[in-house]
Amino acid sequence: MAGSSDPGFDTLALHAGAAPDPATGARAVPIHLTTSFVFENSEHAASLFNMERSGHVYSRISNPTNAVLEERVAALEGGVGAIATASGQAALHLAICTLAGAGSHIVSSSALYGGSHNLLHYTLKRFGIATSFVKPGDHAGWRAAIRPETRLLFGETLGNPGLDVLDIPVVAAIAHENGLPLLVDSTFTTPWLMKPFEHGADLVYHSATKFLSGHGTVIGGVLVDSGRFDWQAACDASGRFAELARPYEGFHGMVFTEESSVGAFLLRARREGLRDFGACMSPHTAWLILQGIETLPLRMARHVENTRKVVGFLAAHPMVASVGYPELDSHPDHALAKRLLPRGAGSVFSFDLRGSREQGRAFIEALKIFSHLANVGDCRSLVIHPASTTHFRMDDAALALAGIGPGTIRLSIGLEDTDDLIDDLKRALGAAKKAA
Amino acid sequence: MELSVVSPAGARRAYAYTGGKPLDASRPTVVFVHGALHDHSVWTLPARWFANHGHSVLAPDLPGHARSAGPALDSIEALAAWLLALLDAAGVGNAALVGHSMGALIALEAAAQAPERITRLALLGLAVPMAVSPALLATARDTPLQAIDMVNAYSHSTSAAKPSYPGPGSWLHGANQALMRRVQEGHAERNLFLVDFEVCNRYAGGLEAAAKVRSPTTLVVGERDQMTPPRQAAAIAAALHAGVITVNAGHAMVAEAPDAVLAALRKAVG
Predict the structure, then answer these.
(1) What is the pLDDT of residue A3?
(2) By the 8 A CB rule, do B61 and B67 touch?
């Protein structure tokens, strides 16, 4: 494959990390459902444990099927490597716990998936890791929130629920001016729509459950390192990240930055984080996500194409008060989306139905093709009404504070015929009108 | 470890990786010499193996690369003299030298400058001469990041090298690109890509050096190497009376075939 340039995105989506199996000739990636791998002899065993050789020991730490997935996502993102995890939440936890501990601090966008917000705002606080939340577009706020004990900045490429576009170049520059890395949740955009590393992010993770898998079948996450953040320089300058850049007693006195100039983060995340926290991915899950990634370019193009048609329909409908999609002129981050997301702003968005919670409920119940459930990024179209489900305990005032109205509906547009999707929505909007 | 290296080019602070163990100069020493726009981290797996199997290890960052003070040196001869001075600074008398690509040229020249000090020689991805195309040099001069991408693509023979380096889940193309960019940006006073590739291109003393080498020598050749193709090793192998071991890899053979390279090094210097 050697040539003057690396393969393109579509080729990498099919080939990166995978070759015909040398033992059997199998062309597709085999599923290595095994906990452990036989050592050739005692010397081989010792050399694997002592990082004198590369190889697999135990599937919590690494597995050949998972490794293909890890290399493939790293290739698509432009990273140095990746770690497959049990879920997107596990990937976020692994990233944080590789860089932070009790007494550490995180600066995070306030526009987050609810699960991430819970982890940062409540759960990690119990373990001594504090988080300051700032609005993603409040650049002065990002800068002002940084403290000596801050270990990372964190945001989503498209924030929840309003699809705020994270200005990665600006936030990354703020992070780097302060000797800190920027971690980005790129679940909604996937590397087909945006490669955050090209804009300055240092670490990226995905809930692979969503578009990477694409079929709503498995839960998984992937954490990717750009290899661009210089942990040694940051430690020398500020004393931060000593666990990466000084002898670390948790791993035989190893200095991870000496062992790998550009892969120190992943080395520690795998050797300590997967070893100790254990939130690894099943090889069967990895295989299913690989199947999804093989068609990621085709699916993402269709997701975006369908979404644009549905957004156009909704924006013109009298029962719809507003549509929050960054490709619309009315979205506050429209210009930023044009710059950072030229291929499209994804296929998950919210719109506000004119009317009450009851009308929202009527709308949901009238849909036939859209599935009412709590997920996004499926090949099937999905819908949820936050006011009657995920946020049902909140009164209207509290909902407003969260950026959610009584008629807010979130859609995840799938790969069906758009005429059918629009007919389904048209019928449901009619039902909502009658429920007034 | 940090060293102060006094060579004809002056006194410079230098860093050398020691394989995760303190250097013990009383043990047989293996010195690993990296190639253009690389650093010691390309050697960590074999370096750790030798450090844990009866040897001492030095894997320096060359002057002006990564952790070693600059500026970078302008000739293979100066780099070889610096390498021998590094041995002095570390208190190492004799050593086996392992070099990759530009590092192989440096090891060869060092073995010629001080044949009595070099016990074994393992040269990976070597071509003599190591001519660099004018087009690549021009790209390196004008747009070094683009030149890095070109060399990175030419260096890898597959998008699925197993078991990957330094461990599973590493994407070799991305890791090598990130390392070359890091090293290039680390000493911004010079266009290091251009310096290193011009150093390789200018070196004309390979066959003359080979005549002075006394140590048993092994060439490790990547059968799919497009940067230093196997056919270019024939003349220098004959001049060195060297054994040749072929591994199934491209120019980035240490990363693409770590087990095969380790086996070759165990034969060559173990």
Answers:
(1) 57
(2) yes
